[in-house]
Structure to design on (431 residues):
């Protein structure tokens, strides 16, 4: 495979074992730029290129996008398939600049349109509309409130593997309210984990009205309102929401629920086998609203796995009101061996935004033994992050493809007494 040359510039501070981008007035100002040459991306376990016409169209669209980039942008965005950057996504607001890859703001109109064309092949019409409304309309609305913190230009793109030569490749769209992992492995296509959110979720920007999670909200309320008394007793509880298996807590930390995360504790709530026929039908409609964000052909394959395990589906609802409505807070989750869904109404951050108008959602596939082609991250989960990286800097000090890199890290240290960090500290030079 051809060499991939990358330039890494590190500007980072650590406080309480988490990474934040340095502000201009920070005492520490690091500008250590070094060139890394990756000479071998022959990752084991890759597939041959698929003969499926839809996947070939995806591959050609990816090549069109790649070929439209300058050599510098292509270099910034390119990674080996087993790079831990697959795991370094989060929903920290983009003003922190804690992301790799290239940003929307780096692209000209033609390059951005090429990327949108690629997205449309992976996503259904409904899925693409959500991503577009999240990244351009809702984020544009927030940009008017705080231009230097929220910006549509801050969404980033990382690319993994080489679609020119093999059939295992992918890319990641990562930003404030949208972090989706698009993966191709032979004839298999997946888009999980997929974090989708919005603030506001209902609004108008540049004269365009949007309602990002209309189906996920309205179908869930229909399900709730149709529960029998006994079903309500089992499924519903009082309390606050918040994603249980969501994103990393801070920029620079990898997905904490990757790998062999144990979902067995979530086999609670109202079980599908115990639901009335009407409730079962409504649960299926709600589940499909998430699964069919993926393009139909590949969503059908995923849905078949879900239905083969449908009796082991659990539904949980939480709220703090007598009668939930479209303008009240609530949370729900669905667990199936092949699907994890959470929907949570969050406290608004933007000034003047209504209490109900900020949503986080997550879609995953639990990593269980029955998942033939892998859960989250597909089959790639078995080849990424073998050393279980806990901190972003560990990626640069432990990953094989950084073995010949030269760089230094300066830190502001505080409360760094965990065993994980102390073990890591021994492997780096702290100036």
């Amino acid at each position: 495979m051809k060499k991939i040359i990358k330039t890494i510039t590190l500007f980072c501070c650590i406080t309480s074992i988490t990474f934040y981008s340095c502000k201009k007035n920070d005492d520490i100002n690091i500008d250590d730029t070094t060139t890394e040459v990756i000479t071998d991306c022959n990752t084991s376990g890759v597939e041959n290129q698929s003969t499926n016409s839809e996947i070939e169209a995806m591959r050609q669209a990816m090549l069109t996008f790649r070929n439209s980039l300058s050599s510098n942008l292509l270099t910034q965005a390119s990674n080996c398939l087993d790079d831990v950057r697959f795991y370094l996504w989060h929903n920290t607001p983009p003003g922190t600049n804690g992301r790799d890859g290239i940003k929307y703001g780096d692209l000209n109109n033609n390059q951005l349109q090429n990327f949108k064309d690629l997205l449309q092949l992976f996503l259904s019409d409904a899925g693409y509309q959500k991503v577009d409304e999240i990244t351009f309309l809702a984020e544009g609305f927030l940009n008017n409130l705080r231009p230097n913190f929220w910006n549509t230009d801050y969404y980033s793109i990382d690319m993994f593997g080489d679609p020119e030569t093999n059939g295992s490749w992918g890319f990641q769209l990562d930003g404030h309210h949208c972090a989706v992992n698009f993966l191709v492995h032979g004839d298999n296509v997946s888009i999980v984990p997929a974090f989708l959110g919005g603030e506001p979720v209902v609004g108008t920007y540049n004269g365009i009205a949007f309602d990002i999670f209309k189906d996920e909200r309205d179908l869930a309320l229909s399900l709730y309102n149709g529960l029998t008394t006994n079903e309500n007793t089992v499924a519903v509880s009082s309390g606050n929401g918040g994603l249980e298996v969501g994103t990393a807590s801070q920029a620079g930390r990898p997905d904490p629920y990757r790998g062999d995360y144990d979902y067995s504790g979530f086999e609670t709530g109202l079980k599908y086998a115990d639901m009335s026929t009407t409730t079962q039908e409504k649960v299926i409609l709600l589940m499909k609203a998430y699964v069919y964000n993926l393009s139909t052909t590949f969503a059908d394959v995923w849905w078949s796995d879900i239905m083969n395990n449908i009796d082991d589906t659990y539904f949980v609802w939480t709220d703090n009101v007598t009668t939930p409505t479209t303008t009240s807070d609530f949370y729900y989750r669905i667990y199936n061996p092949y699907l994890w869904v959470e929907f949570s109404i969050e406290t608004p951050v933007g000034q003047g935004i209504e209490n109900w108008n900020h949503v986080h959602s997550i879609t995953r596939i639990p990593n269980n033994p029955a998942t033939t082609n892998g859960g989250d991250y597909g089959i790639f989960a078995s080849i990424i992050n073998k050393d279980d990286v806990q901190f972003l800097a560990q990626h640069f000090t432990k990953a094989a493809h950084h073995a010949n890199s030269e760089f230094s890290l300066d830190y502001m240290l505080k409360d760094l007494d965990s065993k994980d960090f102390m073990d890591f500290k021994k492997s780096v030079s702290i100036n």
